[in-house]
Amino acid sequence: MQWKEMHGWTVKMSMPSVLAMVTVFSMIPGGVLSDTRGTQGLEAQQIAQGSTHLHRRLKRGWIWKQLFVPEEDPTPRVIGQLKSDYDRGEFSIKYILSGDGAGDAFEIDEYSGEIRTLKKLDREEKAFYVLQAQAINRKSNEPVEPQSEFIITVQDINDNVPQFQNEPYVSSIPEMCLIGTTVAQVTATDADDPMFGNNAKLIYSVLQGEPYFSVEPKTGIIVTSWPNMDREAREQYLVVVQVKDMLGLSGGYSSSTTVTVSLTDVNDNGPTFQHHLYTFAVPENAAEGTTVGRVMAYDGDSGINAKMTYSLEDDLEESSTFIIKTDPVTQEGLILLAKPLDYETKRRFVMAAEAVNDHVDTRFLDLEEFRDRTTLKIIVEDVDEPPVFLSAVYEWKVPENAAVGTVVGSVSARDTDTVNNPIRYRNVNCLNQKEWDLPPKYSIDKRRDNTKAFKIDPNNGTIIVAKALDRETANWHNITVEAKETTQSHLSSSVVVFIKVLDINDNVPRLARDYQPYICEGTQAGELIQLLSAVDPDDPVEGHHFYFSMVPEKHINPNFTIRDNQAGIVARRSSFTRKDRTQYLLPVVVTDSGSPALSSTNTLTISVCSCQPAGHCPTGGVEALALSMGVSLQTLLGIVVCFITLIVLSILMLVVRRHRRKQQEKLEVEGKELELPETVSQKVLYYGETGPAVPLRRHPRRRERRLRREDVRASIRMSLRESHLIGPDDDVFRQFILDRLAEADLDPYVPPFDC
What we know:
It is a single-pass type I membrane protein. The chain is α+β, with helices and mostly antiparallel strands.
């Protein structure tokens, strides 16, 4: 028997068992036990020699190494056994397993110490498990061995398919590239253990894309294997690459991916015209800049390699008539008209057009192969053109006193077509055509001639004055003359005629403004009173010059004179006073410098003014008003005060009258409230037996009724005093009674006295 001591663990083994364990362990890399001090080999040799001596090691450092279990094995199996030296087979020792997967993936037989799997394991999920083992005495529940740690490794099998990374793969290479040009690199990964067998060892191959492309088996680098691939023939390729594990051996897994390879363009094609001759037609009246036609040189390349420039090659005379430009979008050559055409002068143009690539690459073609030429033929078409005036614009002058019918000038137009069509002219704006017996040839456009000051001869284009001109009203006349053909097209053209009206001296001069001169009291003889200026609507060439003078009279004006060199009015005498005279009238003659000279007479009113100390005559306020009325300031103030007083009195009278009216209306309202009831007025109807029936009138105001009754009573008392002297049959007494009755009957405010 051989005994081992390992941290208190004692494992009892027979020689056959030891040999068997050694055999098993030799099949498993790393074994089950190892000596951290490098003494395991010596002890194994002693055991193999059958030594019966007991070898004791003090404090030897034994630890558990690792156990192995294959992945994806669904059958539970024993993968190892723990045995304590104190285990005598009496089941007094209890084995306990703890750590990763204990109780879930692994379990230990607490009596025998056998470690077995509980489920299928996956190395890609967990590659190893770290566990702890312990032996406990069942009776004392005390550990008989120190806790020991060991590792169970999950052994890999080929159960994963290799997967490509970074899909999809898209790459591009230039066309015409050399063999072996790198296209792209594909990369695949395998989740199996790369350190165990060939499970994760991959190899690449091409399934689709040969013979144009190939792939490096180990690196996955795709390279070209076909020379001179032309983009114009085929622009895109699909390369299918397959990857296998197990180095491509049978029984392994595989997957594939697609690589899209595009050929980028290089300038390996030059421009080529499809035709050797291009023919175009253009009317002779085409405007400058008109597109005559388009030519296209085909270039199989694309992008910048297809850009080209067109040019024209012809003689010096024709090179300036047409130009050609490159359309940046379509790469067409646009033929444009650069100068006006004339069918009668030149009817055909022949020139060469050339197209040249902007970017050339001499690696693929010669320099001359990047250009091409063709011939352009441009035919000018005849067009019935309108008449053409001999001058683009006409400008004439006419004096403003020109008589009606005066010839101002003539316009002329001709037909430039090959067949000289006679020009028939139409007066489109002339409303009264009785004067024009001939068919109209020239006409004036009325839409642009508002003055209608001129007429035109429809046969020869002579323009005459139609009505009197006035430079001061319109100094320029702009008219449009139209000429029209007699053909069916009735083409016409027009020209502008500018007529300037020249000035003559036909307007009299006049003073520049309405002068209101004044002379101060006490002005001395020879003093300047007023400076004068004049205006004239005429516009003489030498400018205006006016002469001022007084109207020739039989006697010399003793008060004022005019100095022409100063254009001013001067006092002849002194001592002007308002008492003598407040105003003076002075006729002034203004003469211009025209030929013949014209003049006008203007009468000025010179006022005598009581000027202020500074010599200023008031032109506003009360004082100015008094001066204008010819009265003194004191008189004017008195008139104003009287006028204001009358206005105030009138206002007061209106206020009093209005106040009385309001009081009367108020008393009438109160009287209505004091009227007797209707029953009373119906009972009091008669004042006598034989008298007429009188209805009761409105009740009077209380105060007025009281006053009237007091007057009546006083009159009655006085009559009673006199009745002692006069009897009842007296005429006076009878008359008194009748008067009272009449007064009572006529009084609208009181009832009759006999009621």
